[in-house]
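QA checklist item 7 of 12: single-chain prediction sanity check.
[x] sequence parsed
[x] length recorded as 209
[x] structure emitted
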Amino acid sequence: MTLKKVFIALLISMCVSSFLVSASEASDVVIKIKVGNSQMSVNGELAEIDPGRNTAPIIHEGRTLIPIRSIIETIGGTVEWDSLESRITLKYKEDEINLKIGSVNAFFNGSEETIDVAPIIINERTMFPIRYIAEKFDFEVVWEGGTNIITISKKSVSEVAAEEKEEPEETDIDLNFEETMFEEDYIYDEFLEDEESLEDFYEEESDEI
């Protein structure tokens, strides 16, 4: 075998190994968030959901909404914000989601769909429905009604449960999360009712997600 062929073989081997490692890391990600808490747990490590802003997930019209940028970037995706159109484009691997502030019309890989609740702006932060986005990117979403905790995972529910049983000190969200001033069932619908109109409310948006 010539030196050139050896080099090519080594290069291919390195690329394949890198791909396998990346795929393994993506499949192992487990994110936990709690309504009213500004921190999330990523594979047992605490991180801010909205760094420097102290923004926490809320419940609006029966759905959990969160600032989405850090979640998408944590799973390896990208976020593009169009401030002129008030649109956001989320990309993960080969899939793309396009959403507009105040609209229940979404586009997934170019196909129009209707979502349960529209993205909104609260306290200058844009909030998005996490279940719709996560499931479209093939992540599992598990809601724990008793604790208002959401688990977003590439693993099956049984795998996540088995790991929590084996290592509760690393995966028990109640042991890691800081106490929050929000009550578990705090709803932000009343906040929106105080505004003169949704149209005026959306005009207060920030250029950041």
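[x] summary fact logged: The first helix runs from residue 3 to 27.
[ ] second reviewer sign-off
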